[in-house]
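Worked problem 6 (solution included).
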Amino acid sequence: MDVREEILTLRRQLEHANFLYYVKDAPEISDFEYDALMRRLEELEAAHPEYASPDSPTQHVGGYALNTFAQVRHQVPLESLQDVFSFDELRAFGARMDGALTQTHDYSVEPKIDGLSMSLEYENGVFVRGATRGDGITGEDVTENLRTLRNLPLTLENAPAKLIVRGEVYMSHEVFAALNAERELLEQPLLANPRNAAAGSVRQQDPKVAAARKLDIIIFNLQFDSDRTFAAHTETLDYLASLGFPVVPYQRCETLDACCARIDWIGDNRETFPFDIDGSVIKINDLAQRQYLGSTAKFPRWAVAYKYPPEKKESRVRDIVVQVGRTGVLTPKAVIEPVRLAGTTVTNATLHNQDFIDNLDLRIGDTVLVQKAGEIIPEILSVVREKRPEGTVPFHMPDTCPECGAPVVRDPDGAALRCTGAECPAQRLRNIAHFASREAMDIDGLGISLCQSLIEAGLVHSPAELYALEPQSVAALDHMGKKSAENLMAAIEKSKDAGMARLLCAFGIRQVGQKAARVLAMHFAKGFYKIIRQWMMDKGIQVEKPKSFAYLVARKIAREGTELYRTGKHEDIYSKDIELTIQNIMNRVFGIFSKDVQHINLNNNANSNI
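Solution. The predicted structure is:
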């Protein structure tokens, strides 16, 4: 591959990675792999300026404004930072500062939060607009979602006429762990890291979804202040803290050696921060010196980001335990000796299935190389064969379910082993929790812990029994009470109107998720439509808009989950059961049907009531 072809290939790879990371929130490569590609491209472009292009990924921030939100042009550009990967490279940055600045200078060193960068605007102390970074010049207006952030002040006292700050939206470790624990119980795909979870939440069209994710923000820069001027960056951070903003922790350092020491401290103490970090930021503190240094086409010259490499460490497999999921799938998990990775203590790693274990030839007692995939999920990369102790034996998944003792079978179309027990307690909890989940019947307040309490109290053995609960029995549970029980009963009652699509999804049928459930519901709604039209024609009822009216009634039936079984031969369509069902639906929904009706006028009001 010649130089030009390699440059074009790298640009395509990086643009694709940028799209997946910034727009889809679903990166396919690690930050370390991305940085390696970017550095290679920078080297080639520096050595071959004849191939320079303003469209190169080295020349722009990397994000894109989504067309699902209104676009906002930033009053102050949101620049990205140049990365350094060693203290030698950091000292080279310091040498450039020494050469460019004749006066003494100090630095501010801060943790680099791994979240979603935002610009926030306030007018006369009132939060009026929030936008994502986008491409650094234009971002996405996500104001309503940002209003749901738990620690964002919506009003400020003693604020200037106009204020613009920059911050990072993140999901705390505590919230992320609870969210993934619930998703694991429901056998939903685990979120790779808090950054992706936060970004996906901020980009939801419904602010209620963002609110449910319990996001936070931390402010790290003053972009614009209409009324005041400042001498130093750390002075602006103190000022923003006095206004009530959650501000990034910082340390002023007078030398690069002090910067290096602080960087090491931040890396060693990652787990003490409530947010994920992917590096440390080193900035010239003096704002006048920053102005003098300026920026390149992409980066400010006065700051760099020190990136921590992904850690890989050895540990020993103490045990392999098998868990049972909602659909009965048995999943093995390695219990390893505690090892610190990326500032956290890791004690478990997923093993996926028997095929994964066989490919590694993994055994209890083996020494393994462990890495945190996506900086969050621990994974075993390989077995250190030369350290294998004597007497180890290959691991085999059990023939019976560890929860209920029923036989297990292997899926004919995959590597999964599945419990065959109809009354498996592990499946019972997960099935009931899935039934009540937001994606299914959306029973507000009925989470994993309450499902467990209902099962342990013998009140519920299947999802259907949720609808037979008595308020006094629920109120008697630990941590409940009369008001909580009433709220739960109201949520259960409300779920009866969730509709056929949600009900089909709630059943937990394999391969039938939200999308497939909607398709099935619409399929049956079309069947109802034909029945209703024929029934009206046969009764001699004239409808001004027969197609629209029949379709709307059918859609209402599909929403409510009404089942019309007798749709076989032509003569069965007119059975008394079908007639009464349609009459009941029409009368209840429209309040206009009776035996004597001969003409139905479908106006806009009736349409809107469906």
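Discussion: The radius of gyration is 30 Å.
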